[in-house]
């Protein structure tokens, strides 16, 4: 990272602003400190600015991934039982930095990360995206995130002594739910995660199961709303999804197995689907080698086959979709392949909106994140080429992203910024 320049101008850019159907430009985008000051058609007149001549490349908001697990350093969850939190944190650091290298300037962690990691990122102590965190995911006894062995009979364990317990909090009954939500909000959670249905990686449940009573779900949503926060829920099947959104859940994650009626119910409840298709496709490729059990592999194939159909249903119903990836452990390299998978069904611009302005709305940050507009946070990336025509430009490890700015700071500049002295060019002199 370089020192904070007072004013930075990104010149000669073709702009995807996070909302519009088409590129606009050429424009100059003027940043002051951490904020976008203005977007100027043609040339801006700014003396003493640091200039990056984008030279007709695409400028767009930094990407947002709304479903990651920063701390999920193992694909096989039970391996975390032998991993102390210190080692887990050390192993997580490169995977966190890699997300920023791919152009993700913001992520939402939906189980595992705590306010400590958020603060380390916010203060620049470690490199990586800005993080919105929810602490551990809530699971009922025997639910998706209850990774105790059948031979375990003790409920309470030494929380945080190993990695597993940082990912999951056992919650049973309305009163415990109320206390647990209040407790995580006390610790600064940006949202609450409920495991409201069966999952792929869990040893004790079926994928079509639905979990938590409706009363428990409703209490979680009420308590979160009282603090201007919200609940996201892990769900696959129609029953689990409808129970979640009808009781106040704001984002339903995965949703691979839903039907057309359920896609419409999510829309009508003003909720969002957050697909995470890449995790199934990539994990199915490598899962056998990495030690997933046959039971888990069978569930994985089942949801992978259904995922693309779910995109079709949500497109047809006009259900708002965020953008997530959910990659564990060694699979994390494939994060940006989600763009390519989504393009089998969706137009590139719709996928880009999901990964910018819609995800910002999910994060309760509309107008601040996920857009290039006056007053927004200066999280910006420059893309070689036009991702509205070829979204695969974003795939890989950021090779086609020569410039990354986060919070107005230049994290990567492969073009070469120059310092301008005095009024270098007049406004409108294009
Ligand atoms: Zn997940």
Highlighted features:
single chain; 430 residues; alpha/beta; 9-stranded mixed beta sheet; 11 helices; disordered C terminus; binds zinc ion
Overview of the molecule:
With 430 residues, the chain is of the alpha/beta class. It is built from eleven helices and 18 strands. It has helices at 85-101, 115-122, 163-167, 174-186, 214-226, 238-246, 260-268, 277-286, 294-317, 337-342, 348-362; strands at 7-15, 24-32, 35-41, 50-53, 58-61, 63-68, 104-109, 130-132, 137-139, 168-170, 192-195, 231-237, 251-257, 272-274, 380-383, 403-406, 409-413, 418-419. Strands 1, 2, 3, 4, 5, 15, 16, 17 and 18 form a nine-stranded mixed β-sheet that branches. β1 (7-15) and β2 form a beta hairpin. α4 (174-186) runs parallel beside α5 (214-226). It is globular. Residues 423-430 have low confidence and may be disordered. It binds zinc ion. Zinc ion (ZN) is lined by residues 67, 69, 110, 326.
Could you say which small molecules are bound to this protein? zinc ion
Total count of helical runs of at least 4 residues: 11
Q: Low-confidence runs (pLDDT<50, min 5 residues)?
A: 423-430
Order of helices and strands: EEEEEEHEHEEHEHEHEHEHEHHHHEEEE
User: What summary fits the major beta sheet?
Assistant: 9 strands, mixed
Q: Which structural class do the helices and strands define?
A: alpha/beta
Question: What percent of residues are in strands?
Answer: 15-25%
Overall geometric form: globular
């Amino acid at each position: 990272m370089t020192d904070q320049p007072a004013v930075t101008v990104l010149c000669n850019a073709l702009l995807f602003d996070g909302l519009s159907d088409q590129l606009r430009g050429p424009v100059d985008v003027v940043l002051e400190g951490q904020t976008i000051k203005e977007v100027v058609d043609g040339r801006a007149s700014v003396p003493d600015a640091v200039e990056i001549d984008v030279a007709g490349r695409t400028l767009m908001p930094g990407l947002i991934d709304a479903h990651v697990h920063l701390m999920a350093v193992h694909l096989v969850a039970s391996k975390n039982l032998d991993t102390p939190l210190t080692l887990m944190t050390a192993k997580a650091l490169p995977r966190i930095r890699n997300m920023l290298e791919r152009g993700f300037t913001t992520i939402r962690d939906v189980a595992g990360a705590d306010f400590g990691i958020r603060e380390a990122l916010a203060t620049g102590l470690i490199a990586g995206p800005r993080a919105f965190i929810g602490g551990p995911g809530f699971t009922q006894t025997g639910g998706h995130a209850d990774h105790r062995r059948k031979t375990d009979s003790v409920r309470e364990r030494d929380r945080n002594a190993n990695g597993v317990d940082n990912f999951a909090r056992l919650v049973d009954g309305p009163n415990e739910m109320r206390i647990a939500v209040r407790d995580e909000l006390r610790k600064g959670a940006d949202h609450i995660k409920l495991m409201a249905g069966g999952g792929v990686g869990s040893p004790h449940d079926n994928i079509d199961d639905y979990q938590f009573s409706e009363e428990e779900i409703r209490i979680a949503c009420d308590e979160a709303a009282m603090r201007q926060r919200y609940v996201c829920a892990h769900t696959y099947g129609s029953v689990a999804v409808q129970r979640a959104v009808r009781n106040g859940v704001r984002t339903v994650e995965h949703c691979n197995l839903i039907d057309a009626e359920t896609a419409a119910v999510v829309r009508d409840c003003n909720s969002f689907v957050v697909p995470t298709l890449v995790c199934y496709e990539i994990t199915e490729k490598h899962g056998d080698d990495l030690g997933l059990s046959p039971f888990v592999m069978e569930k994985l194939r089942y949801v992978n086959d259904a995922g693309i159909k779910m995109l079709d249903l949500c497109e047809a119903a006009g259900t708002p979709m965020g953008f997530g990836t959910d990659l564990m452990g060694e699979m994390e390299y494939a994060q940006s392949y989600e763009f390519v998978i989504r393009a089998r069904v969706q137009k590139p611009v719709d996928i880009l909106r999901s990964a910018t302005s819609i995800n910002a709305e999910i994060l309760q940050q509309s107008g601040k994140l996920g857009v290039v507009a006056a007053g927004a946070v200066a999280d910006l990336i420059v893309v070689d080429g036009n991702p509205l025509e070829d979204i695969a430009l974003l795939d890989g490890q950021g090779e086609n992203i020569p410039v990354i700015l986060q919070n107005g700071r230049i994290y990567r500049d492969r073009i070469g910024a120059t310092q301008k002295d005095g009024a270098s060019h007049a406004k409108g002199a294009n």
